[in-house]
Amino acid sequence: MTSFDTDGLKRRQFLGLLAASFPATAVLSAASKDMVRIVGFDAMGRRTGVMEVERIEKSPEEWRRQLTADQYEVTREAGTERAFTGKYADNHADGIYTCICCNTVLFDSTTKFESGTGWPSFWQPIARENVTVEVDNSLGMERDEVRCTRCSAHLGHVFDDGPPPTHLRYCMNSAALNFIPRRK
């Protein structure tokens, strides 16, 4: 072997050892992580700051193990619970509402209002970073679908017939939410 071949062999051996030490799947996995920016809140509903977190992605089977059948249908299949049947439609307690799938804080009870629709309605999310609005063309109409930014859970829809100051109505499914009473 020439000195060039020996150097090449050593280089290949080094690269082989390096690859064995750090499996390619781990390197690719770390590089391909999808990050999102959301706003954190404490138990009082006070903003603690913007943070970059990993988007939560699970298989349908993993979501099914975590959620009830109704929660799965609403959040993972973009279903809608029947009006006036959700546990938070008439909730008037003081607190915050989080995503049932990933616990991201979504709404504050101070922005909840009686819309008469049978679903919990809010005039704004607690932080616009925590929800994503997408066009929904299902049911032969165009609507604005609201999803959790962190896990893409379907939450409901937003309409422009709400009260001041935003004139918006975030019409949410109770099955997509978890209510946490405000700690004082």
Task: Describe it.
The chain is of the alpha+beta class and 184 residues long. It has a domain at 57-181: Metal Binding Protein, Guanine Nucleotide Exchange Factor, Chain A (Beta Complex). Helices cover 24% and strands 30% of the residues. It contains 4 helices and 11 strands, in the order H-H-E-E-H-H-E-E-E-E-E-E-E-E-E. It has a 6-stranded antiparallel sheet. Strands 4-3-11 form a 3-stranded antiparallel sheet, with no helix packed on it. The protein has a two-stranded antiparallel sheet with strand order 1-2. Strand 7 and strand 8 form a beta hairpin. The longest helix has 19 residues, at 3-21. The protein is globular and about 40 Å long. The N and C termini lie far apart (77 Å). The model is unreliable at 1-9 and 11-30 (pLDDT under 50).
Give descriptors for this structure.
Metal Binding Protein, Guanine Nucleotide Exchange Factor, Chain A, single chain, six-stranded antiparallel beta sheet, alpha+beta, three-stranded antiparallel beta sheet, 184 residues, disordered N terminus
